[in-house]
Write a structure and sequence with these properties.
alpha/beta, Spore Coat Polysaccharide Biosynthesis Protein SpsA, Chain A, two-stranded antiparallel sheet
Length: 203
């Protein structure tokens, strides 16, 4: 399997409106939420793209690139994915898939990365998501570069929700078992952050 087929992409461009501040730079233990995610995936990909509108973000690692949304207005994850695809084409990279991760879900098991990569060989679908406990995790997934034209067109036609767009274009699910502790704990509020702090040993 060609590892150069996959560009690791962290979506950190949201408004964090429920959290009240840029949650990607919020500390959980001795690291920011974004740093937790970077740390988990940095050895799994040749390069990592961080989609963020925070102009102060800076990584010393030259394999990590920070890019602002290609469309202003913080319009959601689909714009982040389109931004990553456009970055691949603009920089003449050979990646065929965008592997996406949220910046605010630091407990995920890195084994899912290999499961996603393997699924590419088993399906003809251009969009692959994780599914656990009958819940689809729309930001943990693989997006084929073949989708760029339809994605850009649909965003211009006001598609904003990943789940609706995925239903439109078709997708493949990877069903995974979930432990008693929810490794897909999404930190949207300060209460979520407190719960994460209580489970810091599980990262």
């Amino acid at each position: 399997m060609n590892e150069n087929n996959f560009l690791g992409t962290i979506l950190a461009g949201g408004k964090s409106s429920r959290f009240g501040e840029d949650k990607s730079t919020t500390k959980l233990g001795d690291k920011t939420l974004l740093d937790h995610t970077v740390g988990k995936i940095k050895n799994e990909f040749t390069e990592i793209l961080v989609i963020s509108n925070n102009k102060e973000l800076n990584f010393k690692n030259n394999k990590i690139h920070v890019v602002e949304d290609c469309i202003e207005g913080q319009l959601g994850p689909l714009v982040g994915i389109l931004t990553a695809m456009k970055w691949v084409l603009k920089n003449k990279k050979k990646y065929k898939w965008i592997a996406s991760f949220p910046c605010d879900t630091p407990f995920f098991d890195t084994k899912i990365i290999n499961e996603l990569k393997i699924k590419v060989k088993e399906t003809s679908k251009k969009l692959i998501f994780l599914n656990s406990n009958k819940k689809r995790h729309n930001i943990f997934g693989l997006w084929s570069l073949d989708l760029i034209e339809i994605l850009e067109k649909d965003i211009k036609n006001n598609f904003r929700k990943v789940e609706l767009w995925a239903d439109k274009v078709g997708y493949e699910n990877i069903n995974i078992n979930r432990e008693k502790f929810d490794r897909f704990l999404n930190i949207n509020t300060k209460n979520d952050l407190e719960e994460a702090k209580e489970n810091l040993d599980k990262i």
